[in-house]
Amino acid sequence: MSHQDVITIDLDGIKSVEDFYQRLVERVELPDHTAINLDALHDVLLGDVAESLDFRWERVVEDVACAPDALKGLKCMLDALPQAREDIVISYKGCLD
Questions:
Q1: 14-72, pLDDT tens digit by residue?
Q2: CA 59, CA 41: separation in Å to the nearest integer?
Q3: Domain 6-92 architecture
Q4: Residue ranges of the domains in the chain?
Q5: How far is CA 49 from CA 22, 44, 61, in A?
Q6: What SS3 class is residue 9?
Q7: With 0-12 CB in 10 A as exposed, 13-18 as middle and 19+ as buried, what is 53?
Q8: How far is CA 46 from the centre of its chain?
Q9: d(CA 66, CA 33)
Q10: Secondary structure of 17-29 in HEC code, one letter for each residue
Q11: Measured between alpha carbons, how far is residue 67 from residues 57, 61, 82, 92 in Å?
């Protein structure tokens, strides 16, 4: 694999999976067939995105507290990504149970 610049994506203030998708497509080109749901985004991030990614979510505790139904699943999906791809990093300021 060739060395690539890391693309940083700020997730602070997101309220939904749709917000996550919008932040992602602002920085990374996604396939046309990408659906806006966690399973599809997980698969695309692992299989179709070649760039190295650094997701920064310093307000994770506050954001998830404001929209728990929408964001707990997203956080779980993000937590699993670095286990599958070493060039995807997730940075949190706070932590959740």
A1: 999 999 999 999 999 999 989 999 999 999 999 999 999 999 999 999 999 999 999 99
A2: 21
A3: 2-Layer Sandwich (3.30)
A4: 6-92
A5: 15, 6, 27
A6: strand
A7: buried
A8: 11
A9: 30
A10: HHHHHHHHHHHCC
A11: 14, 10, 24, 17
